[in-house]
Each structure stands twice: as structure tokens, then as C-alpha cells.
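Weekly sync notes, structure subgroup
Attendees: PM, AL, DS (notes)

Item 1: joint prediction request from the bench team. They want all two components modeled as one assembly rather than separately. Inputs as received:
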Amino acid sequence: MNYFNESLTSIHEKLAKKEISAKDLTQETLNNIQAVDGDINAFLTVDEASAVKDAEQIDQNGIDADNGLSGVPVAIKDNMLTKGMKTTAASKILENFTPMFDATAVEKLKSFGTVTLGKTNMDEFAMGGSTENSAFKVTHNPWDTTKVPGGSSGGSAAAVAAGEVLVALGSDTGGSIRQPASFNGVVGMKPTYGRVSRWGLIAFGSSLDQIGPITRNVQDNATVLNAIAGHDQHDLTSSTKEVPDFTSTLNKGVKGMRIGIPTEFMSQGLDDDVKQTVLDAADEFRKLGATVEEVSLPHTKYGVAAYYIISSSEASSNLQRFDGIRYGRRAKDVKNLEDLYVKSRSEGFGDEVKRRIMLGTFSLSAGFYDAYFKKAAQVRTLMNNDFAKVFKDFDLILAPTAPTPAYGIGEDVSDPMTMYMNDVLTLPVNLAGLPGMSIPAGFSNGLPVGVQLIGRPYDELSVYQAGNAFEQDTDFNQQTPKMGGTN
Amino acid sequence: MTEKISEDQVKHVAGLAKLKIDDDQLPYFTTQLDKIIGLFETLSEVDTEGVEPTSSVTDQVNVMREDVAEDWHQQQALLDNAPDTQDGYIRTPTIIDESGENE
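Output from the run, pasted for the record:
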């Protein structure tokens, strides 16, 4: 079965009424993946045996009528640890790595009775925006299989868009949930930094990384965040703030809400259709009773530079652990320990990962630290202050998610600078640690276009509330891809 | 274009990061890194006099826990991931270079 016309609500009803068992649902989902994923390549690993076994266990325990996730098959981005299920971060260096515990987000989701089907493709170590940096395969956009699915959570977003799953987890360091959500016409939420535990998420930029849900609609997204949010003693940066029920204000509308559109996000380099989509969304929010005005985030143009210094510096430190000793790829024919480190890493990492490690090492090295890393961290403060100023007068920010719709496979990958500039609209949200969600809001030549809603720290409620109001009054999320003519 | 980073510097930085860039790859990486570092330098336009750097946006301060070891009973699973093991230990190659080549 595919999930094109389904939601967690509709699936839960079928499971609770015993119209279908969790096992049959899982089996039909696996059959559909088998049929469809050859064209999409969303999955790196599908673990049929363990999925069926987990589903049988859920049937045995009985579907929990009060729990909308009970018995629902899910996909997990391959940079989150899954106990006993291969986890590679799409890197050759982790080609044969099998974790001995679950990431907290995965464990929490499982505790709600979800069935983990497998792991989705991504840019190696989440570094990239097209999933072309995967060491293993190229994922295709279900709306046009000659286009990229975005990235780095491209596999997760494509799997949801192609109707292979209803729920996937992604991770977002500079836009890696929101940009693929935009490219695939699905809903992707990057929660506030600290909202979801990063324990068991293979670290890229530790001050930026967050796990979040990718779903077909806003309500499903809020339901999944309910399950995975909360403090975790294993992640000391996870917040002890109380977690509200993110579905509780979905139907409250946007009347009286003040929404700002940053002028700097609407300027040069923005595709005309994308710009029009944002303006149309603004009109829709006005129609629904919100006020929408232009606001200013004056340091936006320095975001790409600040972000790539900070994220690469953190990555260069985080990726030191891949040394060929305790796990992962170990080079053969080495003379000594130094040789083992250098050969294992040089063989195991792809070019983009090497670039980031070198950029980070350079930015942190003696003589350059003040001019690069420290300077970037100061600019980050100024960018965050810009947001804080806007949020004194506004409840939400509305912005384009990505400068363009999905582009062609192979188009951008050869030029890292072009790739980096594409993150200009998403990465400020990570630098400031804010919640941001991309929702489907239009089309350009048959390709989906998303807009981004950004909230105050820990105010995912307003983001979901506005997103749901928009979704209920439009039909962008009800369109389904033809998948290169195969559907 | 003024050079922000030379091939020698790229080699040096790669060495610090325990990476080896082959000579035929060096121009390719150097050109790309040079361009990106050029972008980094646009930050010098920003007046950051007296601005505190932000290294994290967590709302947690000084999180403490008891300093006790937990046994996860995963020794075998851990060892199964290691490239080379013996008698419950992870084996590595000789640390001292005996070839005499890297003296």
C-alpha cells in the first residue's frame, strides 16, 4: 500500500478497528517500497525481518486506541543509531557499523509502538543539500526523477513524498529537514535547539544539529514531535522545559497573529515562482486574519560565511573520532598508527566531508582562530539579536525555505560554493536555535515549493498552529507526484 | 584573485586533520577552499567590536550528574564493530614505526 491519501489519523483508525493488522500494514508497506524504491532510492537499508517481527509484537500487545503512532511503520535517516540495524551516515567509513543502542529519538518513537522499516539515504554525514554526497546511491525526487530530492535528509523526504512511509525522521543542521521538505512537497519541522535529544545522532555541528519529523501534513508532524521531544539525561543540551501537546492549538487559527517577512530573504537570487509563493502565502495568512508585514534581519548576508565556519569547525572536531580503531573502516597495509589514521580517514571520507574537515581545521588553527571562528561566533550573536528584535513585535516569521525548487541531479554538486549559498534561508534558524517548519505552499513547473514558518525559541505551538491553518485552507499537500510516470 | 590559501597550506591543514590529499587532487581542493575562505573573509566587513561570541544556544547551564559508570552489557556488540580483536581486546598495528621510513 502507498500512503498518498493517508494520514496518521486514517491509518490509526484502520489499525484500531482491526481493518488491518500492524503486521499486514508493515508487509504491505514493505511490498510497496519494493515496488517503488527502485526509481526513488530513498532507502539505504530496509530490514524486512526485524520490521515484521516488531509489527507482530505490536499486534500481540494490541493497538493502543489512544496512541496514534501504535503500529505505524517509520523510516529513520541513516545518521541516527538503530540498535542492531546498520547505520552508515551514508559514509564508506561506517559501511559496516551496527549500533549497540538506539538514538533517544528512535527509542522514544519505538516506545510509542512504531515499526522501524529501515534507514534513509542522505548526504554523507549530513553535509550537503542534494543527497548526491551519499557514498552509496543517488536519491531521485518523486515529482521528477531527474531532479534531486534536496538534502541532507533527502531520503527521508523522498520516502514520505513517494508515499512509501507516512513518517520519517530527519536531522537539520543548516536546513537539512526543511529544504528537502520544500523540494518534495511535504512537511518538515526543525524543532528548537534542545527540544529533541541528540543522543545517538551522529554529530555534525553539535551547536546546530536537531532531529525532527517529516510527514505529509502538519497534524501528523505535531503528533510525532510529541513522541520524540523532551529532556534526556544523555544529552546535556536537551532542554528541561516542559513539553506541551503540540497538537493542542492546531485549530486555533491565526487571527490576530503578527507575521513578519524578512526583506533580506526576498531579495536577490530568489526564483520568481518561489517569491510569488511566499507572497501568495502572505495573502492567505492575511485572509485568515493575521497581519503580515515586512521586517528586517540585517545580517542575513553574512549567514552563509558564519555558518560554514562554525559548522565546519564543529564537524572537524566531531569527526576526529573516525580513526579506524574501534569501529568503522580500517585501511589495510599500514606501517604504524599514524599511517592507519591517515589512510583510514582518507579512504573512508568523501570529498565534501574532507572539504568541511579542512575548512574547520583551518578556521580553528593557530593564527586563524580569531579572524575566522571567533569572528563567526560574534556574527552569530548579531544574527541572533536580529531575530530577537523581530520577535519582540512579531509572533512568527514567514520566509521562502529554499531559493529555488528542486534542481537537476548533477547540476550543483561540482561547485561547493553554489551549494553553500543555497542554505542562506535556512541556516540562520539553526544559528539562532529557533523552531522552523517548511510546509507545501505552491508549485513551479510541476515541482513543489515550500514556505518556512519560524517561531520564537520553544514556540513550536505557534508554528504548528499557523501551519495547520494554512494547510486546512489550501490543497497543496494533497497533490501527489507522478513519480516519473510510474504512478 | 588573491590567494587565500596555498597548496602547501592545504597540505598542512590536511595533515593536522589526519587526511592525505594526493598531489593530483591538490589543485582541485586548493581552488575550492580558496574560494570558500574568500567568502569567509567577507565577515571582516562586520563591526563586532565588543560583541560576545555565541558558541551554543542551549538553555541549560552547568548540567551535573553523578559520576558513576553504567554497564550496558554490550561488550560483544562493541567488539563486533571493531576491525580487529583478540581475547576481548581491540587490536591495533604497531605504534612504533619499524620500517624506518618515517624517521
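Discussion: Chain B touches chain A through 58 residues (CB under 8 Å).
Action: AL to compare against the crosslinking data before next sync.
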